[in-house]
Amino acid sequence: MSSSPLPGDASNDPTTDQSGRFVRQPNGRVRPLSPHLQIWRFHITMWGSILNRFAAGALSVGTVFIGAWLAAAAFGPDAYAWFASIMGSPLGLLIWFGITLAAAYHLTAGIRHLVWDAGSGLTPKAANSLTVVSLVAAGVIAVGFWIVLFATGKVVL
Amino acid sequence: MSKPARYVKHVKVSEREGAGEWKAERLSSLVLIPLALWGLWSAWALSGAGYDGALGWFRSPINATLLAITLLISVWHMNMGLKVIVDDYIHKPSSRTALLGLIGALCLLLAAAGVFFIVRLALGSAPLPAGLGA
């Protein structure tokens, strides 16, 4: 895949480029390298994407905590009480809150992606609005859930 | 890659397993939407309920079945998502294969152990390690 260089700018020729702006893809084709993070101007969909991948990673760790909870229940009352005392401590509650927030955002951002996959909301304005809505809705769900948990006395510090 | 490219409505058909993975990612996402909301509801029911509350919750076949389904689909979805992350950032083929194998094994372990615990709790089995020879 060779493209002719722009007139007077030989550095746009991938075969002679020394700047590292081109990369050989696994299929053997030479393609221009995407501009890296420091080149990008801040935009909300960028944060929506970064936070969604971060939430996905956090949830992967979260499943281990769910697995540990299942194990504690299956190992009987002593194991369960021990697990509940650790995960009911301030640090433990912070971990549960983090899992709630990650799950809520992965849910709302995932719905946003399904809307996009259906071909809707793809103009910059609509995409930005969808992202803001998914971020705010996730915060409302997670914080609201924990406010109710504390208000009803189901969870105490 | 040696096969000639195929097109449907002027859109290129994926050469390998890309289209199947794309569909599986969307299907698991769609199913997880109601299951995540049910999970939030369940977290509400189980919070502060203690050991006896948890046992009672697991004795409901609906709860146990839905939790097992949620766990299995979540781990499937998680495995696909982690594969995308590894594909994005790990370029050395041997490292990528090794990492994907490790992630797959951990996902399998998590799914198998989780279902094992859920089934025992649903059947009201004696607390472990009873039955494991201890």
TrEMBL record, chain A:
GO CC, any one term: membrane
InterPro entries the record matches: SQR/QFR_C/D (IPR034804), Succ_DH_cyt_bsu_CS (IPR018495), Succ_DH_cytb556 (IPR014314), SuccDH_FuR_B_TM-su (IPR000701)
Calcium recorded as keyword: no
Region Disordered, annotated ranges: 1-29
Highest taxon of source: Bacteria
Keywords: Heme, Iron, Membrane, Metal-binding, Transmembrane, Transmembrane helix
GO terms, molecular function: electron transfer activity; metal ion binding
Key word Endoplasmic reticulum present: no
Predominant subcellular localization, coarse grouping: membrane
Pfam families: Sdh_cyt
PROSITE patterns attached to this UniProt entry: SDH_CYT_2
GO biological process: tricarboxylic acid cycle
Record-annotated membrane-spanning stretches: 54-75, 81-105, 126-151
Named cofactor requirement(s): heme
NCBIfam families: succ_dehyd_cytB
Subunit (UniProt): Part of an enzyme complex containing four subunits: a flavoprotein, an iron-sulfur protein, plus two membrane-anchoring proteins, SdhC and SdhD. The complex can form homotrimers.
Similarity comment: Belongs to the cytochrome b560 family.
Job description of the protein: Membrane-anchoring subunit of succinate dehydrogenase (SDH).
The protein's name in its UniProt record: Succinate dehydrogenase cytochrome b556 subunit
Organism of this sequence: Brevundimonas viscosa
Phylogenetic placement of the source organism: Bacteria, Pseudomonadati, Pseudomonadota, Alphaproteobacteria, Caulobacterales
Automatic annotation (TrEMBL), chain B:
Ranges annotated as spanning the membrane: 27-46, 66-86, 98-123
Single biological process term from Gene Ontology: tricarboxylic acid cycle
Any GO molecular function: heme binding
UniProt lineage: Bacteria, Pseudomonadati, Pseudomonadota, Alphaproteobacteria, Caulobacterales
NCBIfam families (alphabetical): succ_dehyd_anc (TIGR02968)
Assembly and interaction partners: Part of an enzyme complex containing four subunits: a flavoprotein, an iron-sulfur protein, plus two membrane-anchoring proteins, SdhC and SdhD.
Cofactor: heme
GO CC annotation: membrane
Gene3D superfamilies: Fumarate reductase/succinate dehydrogenase, transmembrane subunit
Pathway note: Carbohydrate metabolism; tricarboxylic acid cycle
Stated name of the protein: Succinate dehydrogenase hydrophobic membrane anchor subunit
